[in-house]
Write a structure and sequence with these properties.
CATH topology of the largest domain in chain A: Rossmann fold
CATH class of the largest domain in chain A: Alpha Beta
Structural class of chain A: alpha/beta
Number of strands of chain B: 8
Structural class of chain B: alpha/beta
CATH architecture of chain B: Alpha-Beta Barrel
Largest sheet of chain A: 6 strands, mixed
Largest sheet of chain B: 8 strands, parallel
Strand order of the largest sheet of chain B: 4-3-2-1-8-7-6-5
Strand content of chain A: 15-25%
Number of domains of chain A: 2
CATH topology of chain B: TIM Barrel
Helix content of chain A: 40-55%
Number of helices of chain A: 18
Distance between the termini of chain B: 27 Å
CATH superfamily of chain B: Aldolase class I
CATH class of chain B: Alpha Beta
CATH architecture of the largest domain in chain A: 3-Layer(aba) Sandwich
Number of strands of chain A: 14
Shape of chain B: globular
Number of helices of chain B: 12
Strand order of the largest sheet of chain A: 3-4-14-9-10-13
Number of domains of chain B: 1
Radius of gyration of chain A: 20 Å
Largest interface: A-B, 35 and 34 residues
Helix content of chain B: 40-55%
Radius of gyration of chain B: 17 Å
Oligomer: heterodimer
Chain lengths: ~425, ~260
């Protein structure tokens, strides 16, 4: 199977227009104008592209080959047997954990770092929660010969040592957020010296760092439409791989790039009346940051410090500081504008799970399929298991296993200790 | 009302920089403008960049903010009279969010004052379910509808808008007025042209130079609207320099079709 040569831009097929990013109108300046100093130029162009398909630059296609795309679509037959649904329910999963950084995040790190280099940047800066995104950026930066600075939410910095060490091994400088390096970080620490950090705050710090020096570009892990468009390599490959049209497509949601990348090509077919009419699209999120299930659909800051423009999205409020859960990649206050719009129209159905039930599902999956899922991806595993278990008739479920949990052993250690490593059925 | 094609339009917020000077500016621009886009000043001009935002605030202050609503319409009557006498058509632009409770009366007033249409840039993004009411209200007021689209816009909807016999479809080339980001505006415009067929496609947002305006017509625009660049010229150099820029912009637009 070939790697897609174009990304899919769902804005072209949405049932109604995507509300644009806007300035907060709180001063005489423009956050939108600042984007030229923050983001790689080509990413800005992709953010405002009317085309349905955006050609993937040959250098990026080559790097997708290099990292081992396409990723496999696997049938979870052992899980089906374990659940007692074999013969009735077929469960498939797209395995992005097969990529060298262990998650889907590299799919957009490669083009963004490439674009930053085209602008002459010598350093890229970003935020990270669990470290999947930071590790992807560190990897892309090392391949492409630029420096990387990663603001890692403090709770993860302290708990997710494996990814931090890997990022540093790849040459990235990893800074716990909130940090003393930026005004936003210092302000947060003044209020709470033990602040666990949040993705919204880490974004503000990374952007502030970029704006405070020359030769720097910010690369975004999710939420921006251009970024989630990069992830559609997943869903386009999936369309070629699926042996049958699913009843359910399931993915976890933090900022939305994973869900979007996995599901948008199929949703696009649905919106154009070309298939997937019966498919339900399920977004699994954490009860710690339930933006799609309990948030409000309104304009809010992309980052907590309002350095970036406002986006209309489902949000818990940009100052939301979620508890320090293991699935740190889901600790973001909002969801991508297009995903939010689809949620508001009922095309995306959200469901939230708590940490305990998610890990229970993760262990069941690990003991069936031999893959320990990332805590974030385990939310999709939980949803897929629930759907399969409840299903009465012939049902096909496909979910995105967006990352493995091999570098989340600290989380699993805690969970196993708390549960006594119990057998899960 | 028909629009000149290729056409050049100047955008000015009503009553800016002051009611008296606005009328002078209007008269100064008449010889170099095919049609005006008159903005009703807003407290929350959410798609506008710093220059036009400042102009909106200035206009509201000049009118006396507390009673601006009533005075705006009465002042619009004066401006409309001048425009009628000069036979330069005009359209109104304002935010739907500002008029949610009185859209019908606004459309009626605009129709009575000879506006070609009332452009609500936020209508399709934030008030999509009101589109049909807007179209019917416009027609009842003797106007055609006109629509605003962005650089990320559903293709099917663009095509559908073109079938509603609009006065124009306004393509916002940039995310906000007056702010130029590195966006392939000609690519987007060319695609929009394919989607809207023969509909009048008006291009705007951060068009500053005559060669840019000319390039947009060559890429598929029927007309080009310029606001920020003219207001900046007015602020920094005065009305005659602003008119000089408008004349050069209009000339470039006209020459585009001859190239």
């Amino acid at each position: 199977m070939a790697i897609p040569l174009k990304w899919y831009n769902i804005s072209a097929d949405l049932p109604r227009p995507l509300p644009p990013l806007v300035d907060p109108l709180d001063d005489g300046g423009s956050r939108i104008a600042l984007l030229t100093r923050i983001l790689p130029s080509r990413l800005i162009d992709e953010e405002y592209n009317l085309s349905r398909y955006i050609p993937i630059p040959p250098e990026v296609v080559a790097s997708y080959h290099r990292i081992g795309r396409p990723t496999p679509l696997l049938r979870a037959e052992s899980l089906e047997r374990r659940l007692g649904v074999q013969g009735r329910v077929r469960i498939y999963y797209k395995y992005e954990g097969a990529l060298p950084t262990g998650s889907h995040k590299i799919n957009t790190a490669l083009p963004q770092v490439h674009y930053a280099r085209l602008d002459g940047a010598e350093e890229v800066a970003t935020e990270t929660g669990a470290g999947q995104w930071g590790l992807a950026v560190a990897t892309a930066a090392s391949i492409m010969g630029v420096r990387a600075k990663v603001f890692m939410t403090r709770s993860s910095y302290e708990k997710k040592r494996a990814r931090r060490v890997l990022m540093e091994s790849l040459g990235a400088q990893v800074v716990p957020s909130p940090s003393e390096l930026t005004r936003a970080g210092r302000r947060a620490l003044e209020k709470d010296t033990r602040h666990p950090g949040s993705l919204g705050l880490a974004i503000t710090e990374a952007v502030e760092h970029v704006l405070s020096g020359d030769g720097r570009r910010y690369v975004a892990g999710s939420v921006l439409e251009s970024v989630i468009t990069h992830q559609t390599v997943i869903g386009q490959e999936l369309l070629d791989q699926l042996p049958e049209e699913p009843d359910y497509m399931v993915a976890c949601v933090g900022g939305g790039s994973n869900m979007a990348g996995f599901a948008y090509p199929a949703i696009g077919l649905r919106l154009r009346g070309e298939g997937f009419e019966k498919t339900r699209f399920i977004a699994a999120e954490s009860t710690a940051s339930p933006r799609l299930t309990r948030g409000e659909y309104r304009y809010d800051g992309l980052d907590s410090g309002l350095v970036l423009p406002l986006a209309r999205m489902y949000t818990l409020g940009r100052n939301h500081v979620p508890p320090a859960i293991h699935a740190a990649g889901l600790r973001y206050h909002g969801a991508a504008p297009s995903l939010s719009l689809l949620r508001s129209l009922g095309l995306i159905e959200p469901i939230a799970y708590n940490q305990e039930e998610v890990f229970k599902a993760a262990l069941l999956f690990a003991r069936s399929e031999g893959i320990v899922p990332a805590p974030e991806s385990a939310h999709a595993v939980k949803a897929a298991i629930d759907i399969a278990s409840r299903s009465r008739g012939d049902t096909v479920v496909v979910f995105n296993l967006s990352g493995h949990g091999l570098m989340d052993f600290e989380s699993y250690e805690v969970i196993l200790r708390n549960t006594g490593g119990e057998s899960l059925g | 009302m028909g629009l000149e094609e290729p056409g050049f339009s100047a955008y000015i917020p009503l009553a800016y920089p002051s009611p008296t000077r606005f009328l002078e500016v209007l008269e100064a621009l008449v010889p170099c403008t095919d049609f005006f886009e008159i903005g009703l000043p807003s407290q929350k001009p959410k798609y506008d960049g710093p220059t036009i935002r400042k102009a909106h605030i200035g206009a509201l202050e000049a009118l006396g903010e507390a009673e601006a609503g009533g005075r705006l319409l009465s002042f619009l009557e004066t401006a409309a009279r001048i425009l009628r006498n000069s036979s330069v058509p005009y359209v109104l632009m304002t935010y739907y969010s500002d008029h949610r409770q009185r859209v019908t009366s606004l459309l009626e007033a605009a129709g009575n004052l000879g506006a070609g249409c009332v452009l609500f840039p936020d209508l399709l993004f934030d008030h999509y379910d009101h589109m049909q009411d807007y179209i019917e209200g416009s027609r009842e007021a003797g106007m055609k509808p006109c629509f605003f689209a962005s650089s990320r816009f559903p293709h099917r909807l663009l095509a559908e808008l073109s079938r509603r016999d609009p006065l124009f479809i306004y393509m916002g080339l940039q995310p906000t007025t007056g702010v130029e980001l590195p966006i392939g505006v000609a690519r987007n415009l060319a695609l929009a042209r394919k989607l809207v067929g023969e509909a009048y496609l008006l291009a705007g947002f951060a068009v500053k130079r005559p060669q840019d305006a000319q390039g947009l017509v060559r890429a598929g625009a029927s007309g080009v609207v310029v606001g920020t660049a003219l207001l900046e010229r007015l602020e920094k150099e005065g009305p005659s320099e602003m008119r000089e820029l408008a004349c050069r912009l209009r000339k470039a637009v006209k020459e585009a079709s001859m190239a």
